[in-house]
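Design job #97: recover the sequence.
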């Protein structure tokens, strides 16, 4: 049997704030190094990625910081908010390092997905201005209103 080249993936967590606050320039799928208890918490969606950010060291290593694991047991705060290493190719790391140093660009986590293993979708994005956000809200409201009008209005030809 042949396997499909299009591998489906399940989205575990999605960060809605990224699309509202930033314009997405490029996406990367990256692996992450997790411990066993972290995998279980991701599986049951006991994790928060809203305030997380990505840091690139001078050694060209990428880490995620501020991922919060919601643990009921008494575990140190250091383990709840530990930095997690991201796995990418050298060319991708160099590209992200150069682009993230440009003013206005930032790296963030868009979502956590599961293919065979848990992976991250990293996003290189640029911040939006307030007027861009307002324009986007108006467009969404207009689309909703337009669909309601077209739904109830019968057009005779």
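Job complete. Output follows.
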């Amino acid at each position: 049997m042949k396997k499909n080249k299009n591998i489906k993936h399940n989205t575990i967590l999605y960060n809605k704030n990224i699309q509202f606050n930033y314009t997405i320039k490029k996406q990367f799928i990256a692996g992450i190094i997790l411990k066993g208890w972290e995998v279980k918490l991701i599986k049951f969606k006991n994790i928060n990625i809203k305030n997380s950010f990505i840091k690139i060291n001078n050694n060209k290593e990428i880490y995620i910081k501020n991922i919060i694991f919601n643990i009921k047991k008494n575990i140190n705060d250091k383990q709840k908010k530990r930095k997690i290493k991201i796995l990418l190719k050298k060319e991708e790391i160099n590209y992200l390092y150069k682009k993230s140093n440009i003013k206005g660009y930032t790296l963030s986590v868009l979502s956590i997905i599961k293919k065979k293993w848990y992976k991250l979708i990293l996003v290189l994005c640029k911040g939006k201005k307030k007027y861009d956000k307002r324009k986007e809200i108006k467009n969404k409201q207009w689309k909703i209103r337009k669909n309601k009008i077209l739904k109830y209005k019968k057009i005779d030809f």
